[in-house]
Amino acid sequence: MNPTSPREAPDAARGGAPSSTPLPGDRPGFLAFVVDEASEAALRGGLPKSLGNFPLRRGDARAAARALEREPTPAVLLVDVSGISDPVGAMEALAAVCTPDVRVLVIGERTEIGFYRQLTRDLGVAEYLHKPLTRDMVARVLGPHLAGEAAAAEEGLGRGSQIVAVCGARGGCGATTVAVNLAVQLADASRGHVALLDLHLRGGNAGLMLGVRPGTGLRVALEQPDRVDALFLDRVGIPIDDRLRLIAAEEPMDSMPLPAEAGMARVLEMLRHSFNYVVIDMPMPPGPAERIALAAARHCVLVLAPDLAGIRDTLALRKLVGTSGSSRATIVLNRASMPGGLKQKMIEEGLGVAPDVVIPDLPRHLPRAANLGRPASRDSAVLRRALAPLVQEVAAVPTGRAGPSFFARLFGR
Questions:
Q1: CA–CA separation, 119 vs 79, rounded Å?
Q2: Same domain, 143 and 182
């Protein structure tokens, strides 16, 4: 994409029109997949008439997973696990392509109470019905979920996503490059829904690296949490591809954004309910609002360049992460072989540990990709390989293979 004419995000304050790419606000309310005519007839006769001629497709949970790789996730999804030898595995594959806030209803042939409990208690399925279905059974048990009467605690798979905070030890160490390409590779490797949140409200580079131009909606949301409504993502989220969205701002340099702690908490809440992963490009040092994001992160990625200042600031960041309530920090050494940089052995001695991820110096690939507004990992196999361990750590999936575990993807376990 030509960097001189990037796509521009709608301004939340101006109420701009959302992109034509499907956004959370455009998702269907209900979608069903069943394998037999009798169940289809019971569903059509028992589900609320307000749904009208609701979409009902022939196929099982595996067909649903294949379809939802290409389509937006509905608010309520009904799937059939009849005839599947490994229904839990099929549900894992389905979870890998759905947003975390979907409410899932399951029908099948098994009648054991243990299977029911495994689906509803362990996997977070909202309800399970065994066949044969009747219209009365469908209306009484499944109808309330579609009518919006189910308790929030029973709502499907909506248990939130994993938050990954990417923190640069010093400016210019490449933290934004790591955040952008990590988000891209997470979306590619896991087929999950990924949000990239750039909290650099002034001078952030995530949009430039992706060839888009953010608006001002994120600042409004962070400063005035009462204005964050159900259409927030429609207004602010910039679709990069079918699985990745950028949430960012481009404020004037003479402005003074003042994110509120409540605003940060509200924005994270919205993102966690719509995406499997939220990758945050963190400003350093963090202010009170940014500390909310740091404390919410399950993974904290500390990026440093091979210099003494980077070692010093990484040690300070690691201490900060340890007192924030977040998980153990993952250390990424960027530009490891840069001319004039410290040798890796000296860096290990200074840190007291070896870096978890080492990215070599890529003086041609990264600047060229940034100028083109294209993620460097799309063209650089070296960068993809270097980031692969981090992708695997976050998503619990070997890169280049399908589907992480159900728990790791949706429940953050």
A1: 12
A2: no
19 in a structural domain: no
Three-state DSSP at 297 gives: coil
Place of tokens 């945050």: 280
Q: What is the pTM of this model?
A: 0.67
What is residue 340's three-state secondary structure? coil
User: Dihedral of CA 288/290/295/296: which sign?
Assistant: positive
3-state DSSP assignment of residue 377:
helix
The model's pLDDT over 59-103, given as tens digits with 9 standing for 90+, comes to 999 999 999 988 888 888 999 999 999 998 899 889 888 888 888
Q: Which residue, among 266, 306, 304, 264, has the nearest Cα to 288 in the 3D structure?
A: 264
Pairing of strands 103-108, 194-198: unpaired
CB 204 within 8 A of CB 198: yes
Residues 6 or more apart whose CB falls under 8 angstroms from that of 239 comprise 19, 21, 23, 245
Task: Please give the structure tokens belonging to residue 179.
Answer: 């955040």
| Omega before 132 within 30 of 0, i.e. cis | yes
Q: Where are the alpha helices (DSSP H) in 324-364?
A: 344-351
CATH number of 205's domain:
3.40.50.300
For 138-173, what is each residue's pLDDT tens digit? 887 887 877 654 443 333 333 457 899 999 998 889
Give CA–CA dist 35/184, Å, rounded: 35
- HEC readout, 164-222: EEEEECCCCCCHHHHHHHHHHHHHHHHCCCEEEEECCCCCCCHHHHHCEECCCHHHHHH
Mean pLDDT (the chain) is 82
Q: Is the domain of 292 the same as that of 367? A: yes
73 burial level (CB within 10 Å; 0-12, 13-18, 19+): buried
The whole-angstrom separation of Cα 269 and Cα 265 is 6
